[in-house]
Structure formats: structure tokens, C-alpha cells
Amino acid sequence: MEGKKDKDFISTLRAHGLQVTYQRLAIYQTLYFSLEHPSAEVVYQQVRKRFPMISLGTVYKTLERFYDVGLIDKVSPVTEVARYDARTGSHHHMVCLQCQTIMDADSPVDEPMMAVPALEGFHVLRRQVVLQGYCSKCKSRYVSSSS
Amino acid sequence: MEGKKDKDFISTLRAHGLQVTYQRLAIYQTLYFSLEHPSAEVVYQQVRKRFPMISLGTVYKTLERFYDVGLIDKVSPVTEVARYDARTGSHHHMVCLQCQTIMDADSPVDEPMMAVPALEGFHVLRRQVVLQGYCSKCKSRYVSSSS
DNA sequence: ATTCTTGCAAACGGTTTGCACATAC
DNA sequence: GTATGTGCAAACCGTTTGCAAGAAT
Q1: Could you tell me which chain A residue has the CA closest to the CA of B128?
Q2: Domains of chain B (ranges plus CATH)?
Q3: Over the stretch A50-61, which tens digit does the pLDDT of each residue have?
């Protein structure tokens, strides 16, 4: 079921253009076998069992690096700081990664959104769709290189 | 178009069980007429133009209060700290507001999710659906009072 | 009169940064 | 040999907290 070897993890890191260190290997493996969506602190505590000399700073840097190259996913902080909205009707937003603009994505989003079901007895209070990317203003600077 | 009077805002606050102060009025009005999904800091700077003696702490407390009673929406911090995930395929999660557990909501979510369209030339890199609520374990403690 | 809210300032905590040393390539 | 990554510790910054004074009901 999990017959994945060190060799495979190394290949995965290399395939993402990353230099390979035992710290990175340990961090990635920890996350790979974790089901709990751990925070940086939790990953740190976990990895520290095997490599007591590793530092929390390295874990932060490494996770951010992994995220940047698309190796892993980051769940929470969609924007840097909390952002508020008096319009409580539509909870769906497009967030520009460059200028941090948040645009509403109202009507066309609502219907597919509401079709998202709750699973396993989960009691849903809020539903939120976030599209992350680049707005039309910032797009040209970032997507223009090849198109 | 915006013929909403102070009286109306006061009613809105009262309707949400909130005591009325000029600070709350100013904060809510600022947010109500803002289209930019401002941060607490931005709201503070805005309100300060009219009420120079207001404090940032009050803005934080007030916004959080508004959010708690459902008067306003908070866009970003779905979880308290960043949480990571090695499974980059499905970006959809159910977050328990009580125990902070994050569960994957895989297959049944994917299709409606992908139907969410990009608007106004927005270049989408990541799509994220987050269901906030209570997991089956914590639900009983919070939803049991009436059912 | 009592309860809730404000303002101020200090504390908090997750995250980032700078730099010297070590390691990967 | 050179570029990149690591460890450590301090700095950062958005946010929260405690408390005395003030305002709302």
C-alpha cells in the first residue's frame, strides 16, 4: 500500500527542481504520510523525533518552498491578513496573488457552490469558494512570458 | 442608490443584538460602503478620518463582534495557522471550528467545483472550497441544545 | 445602577529574516 | 568551487488581552 521508497521521494523532489537534503526528505515524507493536515509546528515536532537538530525555521522555509513549486498544498492563509466584507450573501471570492485585491464572484458561482455536499455528518455553517490567481491588471506581468 | 440613513444602520445593529455606539456605526458604515474587502488596519485608517480618537483595538474587537453575530463576513483566515497537505489533487476541505480538524472532501466535491468559472479575465491558479462547521464529534456539543 | 464598550499598551504567537556555517551539486 | 540550504536567534506584525475610564440602556 505504501511501498514508496526513499528513491521515489528523491525523484519527486528533483522533479520539482529541488535540491535534495535529508531535512527536505524527512519533511516531505512526514507530510506525505500524514492525514491530519499538520501545521508547520506539528511537522517540526514530528521530524524532530528522527532529526533532533532540525530547526523550526528550516521547516517553515522548506514548506514554503514546497508550496511554491507546487509539491504540496497550503490550506489556510489565502490572504496575508483578515479581510472583511459587509455583503454576507455571497462568500465567494477571487484573490489576486500579486496585488491582494479581492473581487466578488457572485451569481454564476452560487449554484455549483451550493451543490457541494457535506460529508460524514459534518454540520456546515459556512461555505466558501476561493479562486486564487492573477487579476486582469496583474496577469500581463506574470502570464505574458510565453503567451 | 445609497439612500441608507443612520437610522437604518442603527436598526441593523440592534437587529443583531448589538449595543449601538458611534464607533460601531462608523465601522459598519465604512465597511458597508467599501468595495475593497478592507483589512482591520484599513478600516481603522478610514474611520480615523472622522473619529481620530478611535483605537485599532476597538476596530479589531468590533469587527470580530460583527462577524460573530453574522453581520459581516470574514474572508481569509479559515484556520488559525497555516496547514499543509501533500495531496495536491483535491483542494477542498471541511474545517471544524471547534477542534480544528481538517477533513478532505474529495470526489463528490470535485465536479461542481470545477464548474466555478473565472470572471473578468481573472487567471485562476488554485481553486479552493472550504466548508466551515462542526465535525461529527464536536457537533453534538454545539448543535444539541435544540435537536 | 449596571452592564457593555472603548482606549491604551503590553503581550502573544505564528512567521520571516539575516547571517555564518555546512552541504549539495 | 559555487550556489543553495540549514540552524539559530532576533525581529516582525497582525491580533489578542487586561484593565481602568467612559458610555449605553
Answers
A1: A130
A2: 4-146 (1.10.10.10)
A3: 999 999 999 999
